[in-house]
Specification:
Layout (H helix, E strand, L loop, with lengths): L1 H8 L1 H20 L10 H11 L13 H16 L6 E2 L3 H18 L3 H9 L4 H21 L8 E2 L2 H20 L8 E2 L2 E2 L12 H18 L3 H11 L3 H20 L16 H18 L3 H9 L3 H19 L11 H20 L5
Antiparallel strand pairs: 1-2, 3-4
Length: 363
């Protein structure tokens, strides 16, 4: 166990994890997941929101097994390595709101940080604007961190608190198995299923679940985090997490070349739009929210799996944010962002800046 811990704490460990995620994401796409969306935490949580009826956008409804696997894989790794630590109580309402606006920003861009990298690895030039916005938002968040921003210390709590998000994911898995999709039907029992669009594109259930479990284990061990990679580079000039971030890009690109999934260009890219400013601005909002909350959407799922109740609140905020985004017309489409989405980005930036400026401890 100690040797395993040392490996995943090393630079080669984080590089291997990024490489595995990049290759598996490309394979999931080949097996049926949406193009340039082998793995997208924000998009998959949006699909989950649709599958349980929180929104009724018919093209994005599927209870994604990858998200379930992320949490349960992290739970398994945390118990194996004696790192399951139930904790909570660090400004939960703030974390919830950050989750809501992180999702809104991501859906204006049409992807989380993971998908921004995977879109670039698939040849989508619009992802360059998204990644630039992500770095800008994280840079603003890093400035707040440097100037005393702090959500407070989480407290040790009951084991049951740490288990609530994994149990929720187990419940989702039971729902998925008990209500399988019926060919040609948009609803099966209590779950909704897309018949067309991104929600209808998915790899086989058990393949997706196993990939999610594996990534959950590896990411929990290595502390893989796309937001943390840029934050550490900006604040501390440290490149440990950045090595995993870059490995994800390089290996996903290589896998896409091998699998015939690399299609360079700006126009006609799958589930993407070419309104460059709003690609940038949406990810500024998402990056700032991730930085203020202390982790990218993937990292929040992994922390929730290891007992962090505050991360679980952020995850719930993202799922609720997805419902708001589609019920109120905030999410973009391949045609671009609408007026409601533009207003939501402005409001979201104002809320995040308010949180950043007012939650600072001064000497």
């Amino acid at each position: 166990m100690e040797a395993v811990k040392r490996f995943f704490a090393s630079r080669w460990g984080i590089i291997c994890v990024g490489a595995v995620i990049g290759v598996l994401a490309a394979i999931l796409q080949k097996l049926g997941n949406p193009a340039n969306m082998g793995i997208c935490v924000a998009c998959f949580e949006r699909d989950i929101a649709g599958s349980i009826g929180l929104h009724r956008a018919a093209v994005v409804q599927y209870l994604r097994p990858e998200i379930i696997g992320f949490v349960l894989g992290a739970l398994l790794a945390a118990y194996l390595f004696k790192e399951f630590r139930p904790r909570a109580g660090s400004a939960p309402i703030v974390r919830f709101m950050l989750g809501v606006f992180a999702m809104i920003g991501a859906l204006v861009f049409l992807g989380c940080p993971w998908r921004a990298v995977l879109r670039l690895a698939g040849g989508d030039g619009n992802a360059i604007l998204g990644l630039a916005g992500l770095a800008t938002g994280i840079g603003i968040g890093a400035w707040f961190l440097k100037n005393g921003y702090n959500l407070g210390r989480a407290q040790k709590t009951y084991t049951s608190v740490g288990w609530l998000m994994p149990l929720t994911m187990l419940g989702f898995l039971v729902l998925l198995l008990a209500n399988p999709q019926i060919a040609g039907e948009a609803q099966s029992g209590v779950l909704f299923y897309s018949l067309k669009g991104p929600g209808a594109a998915h790899a086989p259930l058990f393949v997706s679940l196993l990939v999610g479990l594996l990534i959950g284990v590896l990411a929990q061990r290595s502390r893989f985090c796309t937001m943390g990679a840029l934050r550490d580079l900006i604040l501390f000039r440290q490149t440990h997490l950045l090595s995993g971030f870059l490995a994800l890009l390089v290996f996903a690109f290589a896998a896409n070349l091998v699998l015939g999934q690399f299609n360079p260009g700006f126009t006609g890219q799958p589930v993407a739009h070419t309104q460059h400013f709003w690609n940038f601005a949406g990810m500024v909002l998402a990056g700032l929210a991730f930085a203020l909350a202390g982790g990218c959407p993937g990292r929040q799922l992994f922390m929730a799996g290891e007992g962090d109740g505050d991360a679980a609140v952020f995850v719930v905020g993202m799922i609720v944010g997805a419902a708001f985004a589609h019920n109120f017309g905030l999410a973009s489409s391949p045609a671009g962002v609408g007026p409601n989405g533009i207003a939501a980005v402005v409001v979201g930036l104002a809320v995040c800046l308010f949180i950043g400026f007012t939650m600072r401890k001064t000497a």
